[in-house]
Amino acid sequence: MTTTDIRPQTGRSAAVRRPSRLLRNLSSKVAMLPLIFTALVIFLGGTIWTVVYSFTKSGLLPRLSWAGLDQYERLWSSRKWIVSIENLAVYGVFSLIGTLVIGFTLAALLDRKIRGEAVFRSIFLYPFALSFIVTGLVWQWILNPELGLQHVVRGMGFESFTFDPLNNPNIVMFGLLIAGLWQGTGLIMCIMLAGLRGIDDDIWKAARVDGIGTVKTYIRIIIPMMRPVFVTSLVLIAAGIVKLYDLVVAQTSGGPGISSEVPAKYVMTAMFGGQNLGQGFAASTMMLLMVVIILIPWAYLEFGGKRRG
Amino acid sequence: MKLSTQLLAATAICAASSAGAVDLEVMHWWTSGGEAAAVSKLAEAWNATGNTWVDGAIAGGGDTARPVMVSRIIGGDPPAAFQFNHGRQAEELIDAGLLLDITDVAEAQGWKDIVNPPSLLESCTVDGKIYCAPINIHSWNWMWLSGPAYEKAGIEMPTDWNSFMESAEALRAAGVTPLAMGGQSWQQAGAFNNVMTIAIAGKDAWLSVMQDKNAETVMGPEYTAAFEAYAAARELSTGINVQDWNQATNALINGEGGAQIMGDWAQGEFAVAGMTAGEDYGCLPGLGMGAYLQTGGDAFYFPVNDDPEITAGQKELAAMLLSPEVQVAFNSVKGSLPVRGDVDLTTVNECTQKGLDLLANGQTLPASEQLIAPDTITQLNDLMTEFWNTPSMTAAEVQQQYADIIAQAE
């Protein structure tokens, strides 16, 4: 954020000693120093260090013996890495669309001034209070064919009922998606609801006067007005997708086989299971690169454009 | 965490200056019921010497615990001793000069003469210096058979892999899944890398692959037979969907599964269930074919420390871990075999006796972890678990990829 200096200036003194840009708002800048330091040293420094060491043969300990692009060659020839990327893409697309659609629909329904709104809001938000590990374990049990949903339905007499996504390599990502959506939509719903509450009642009245239907009003008028809310939701969801790790560990630990591996888990396994830091660093550098490729054009359009306008 | 370690260090200094005894923090990942009982035997023995055992247990297994230990060592706040498996896991820490050389203890105690098999001490040795104290032997090379399942099918327990394959049909007919296999990659890969290859491809072919990293042997006829047997085993395992190895062992206990390929630690589960070796469950070392035991297990390493009192304590602890009393007390509870050939365990059942006999006859091989680096093990785990869970993948495909990994291995 930039703040423009709008302090009233008496012509004479301003001409004599105009405070330098660096010293403007000095106290707030001093207060920001720890954060600036953290961002530069920990985030930026750590990132650069990781990228540099991804070109080395580091094993259990980081050491500077250069390996050129070997780590990257091995990374991209690894089946597990390719599967991880594909899984993340599938999970990302469906989780993004699913969370936004379900979150907004729930928020819109709650916004219709229904009775017991607070109760429903709490119920939907509740899963968010659980960690991914707990969520993963709960859904691992629910989706376990021998003691979960399939067992219950079969017990009711439907002998041929089969629902075991966690044991089927082809649809295991959707088993993860169910748990991810269950946990994540509540928060998005609350953000959306706050956004809907921020819409002036007059808009609704005007729409009604013009005879526009409720659904159409939402889609054509309300949603475009809620753009900042959607951007916030998008950032939250996207961050959750990229760092997807604990849910997989708790629910499937990458199985069956390698069919639910994700990039973050690949990094962890390479670094700490395989004692191959170089390979893990190469994988995390690729993760960063993917985020950057998606993020920079979007951030430029979103925030750069606004400043100009 | 940090404050508590500082406090511990402070109390350690006080105790050391007043009584001459030291507090040693020992890190390990033995947290299950039987394992914790075994650790308490070590702690008792150490406390009996007038020193204090500070327990640093990390739950979640070796893959979780090892990074924690390594980060404490690199971060300059090392424990006094920590557990690693026999093998190459500590190689780099030794190269970096972070671990204490305990050659003098080993020489004074004559470890060279008492540690059996000698490969355990060799794993501790780098450039002629000894860096670790082996504590127990665990071997992978077992197939466990379920008494209840074979009773259900009305047939005798098989005596080797081939007769097991023949009995599979009868087991299926009785509603039993012939082979119980957990869903985690190390189980599926371990059954092949450690058990089926040694039993079916033979000792020489196995050593050629694991020790000499000879990719041609992987493509040879011996290994082809092993890959085909592994593919057949894959068919026999459909029907049981469990993750952990002890859940698979449990399927044997209640008669849902016929057999399990798993290390000797599985025997602890049968013991807890009150089953008798030879009657309620059977065991086939080396699948009943070429019976060799791999001598994996655990060893303690000692990080370098500035404090001479702690260094002296570390050496005292190293000597104690291999003393006959501690070896018997610890391994009897843990269910593992002692590292010295000159002690007798107090209670031995039929299966453990088979293991001890093989050990005494020298029918031992090193563990895979002693021959190949953890990085390669991770790659092989990924490959074998992919094969196990992808019915469309053929034995020939997995064989080619296996050979590629071995060719690149260090």
TrEMBL record, chain A:
Q: What GO terms in the biological process aspect are recorded for it? A: transmembrane transport
Q: What subcellular locations does the record give?
A: Cell membrane
Question: What SUPFAM superfamilies has UniProt attached to this entry?
Answer: MetI-like (SSF161098)
GO CC terms: plasma membrane
Task: Name the keywords, alphabetized.
Answer: Cell membrane, Membrane, Transmembrane, Transmembrane helix, Transport
Give every ABC transmembrane type-1 domain span: 85-300
Membrane topology term = Multi-pass membrane protein
Q: Name one Pfam family in it.
A: BPD_transp_1
Record-annotated membrane-spanning stretches: 30-55, 88-111, 123-142, 171-196, 217-242, 281-301
Which superkingdom heads the taxonomic lineage of this protein's source?
Answer: Bacteria
Keyword Membrane annotated: yes
Q: Indicate the principal place this protein occupies in or around the cell.
A: membrane
* Family listed: Belongs to the binding-protein-dependent transport system permease family.
The protein's name is Carbohydrate ABC transporter membrane protein 1, CUT1 family
- Write the lineage as a comma-separated list: Bacteria, Pseudomonadati, Pseudomonadota, Alphaproteobacteria, Rhodobacterales
Automatic annotation (TrEMBL), chain B:
- Gene3D superfamilies in the cross-refs: Periplasmic binding protein-like II (3.40.190.10)
Respond yes or no to whether keyword Iron is given for this record.
Answer: no
Q: What SUPFAM superfamilies is this protein classified in?
A: Periplasmic binding protein-like II (SSF53850)
According to the record, the signal peptide region is 1-21
Which Pfam families does the record associate with it? Answer: SBP_bac_1
Q: Which InterPro entries match?
A: Bact_solute-bd_prot1, SBP
User: What are the alphabetically sorted keywords of the record?
Assistant: Signal, Transport
What is the superkingdom listed in this entry's lineage?
A: Bacteria
The record's subcellular locations are: Periplasm
Claim: Transmembrane helix is one of the keywords in the record: no
Write out the GO cellular component annotations. Answer: periplasmic space
Q: Which PANTHER family does UniProt cross-reference here?
A: ARABINOSE-BINDING PROTEIN-RELATED, BINDING PROTEIN COMPONENT OF ABC SUGAR TRANSPORTER-RELATED
Similarity field: Belongs to the bacterial solute-binding protein 1 family.
What is this protein's function?
Part of a binding-protein-dependent transport system for a sugar.
Tell me the protein's name.
Answer: Probable sugar-binding periplasmic protein
Q: What is the protein's species of origin?
A: Loktanella atrilutea
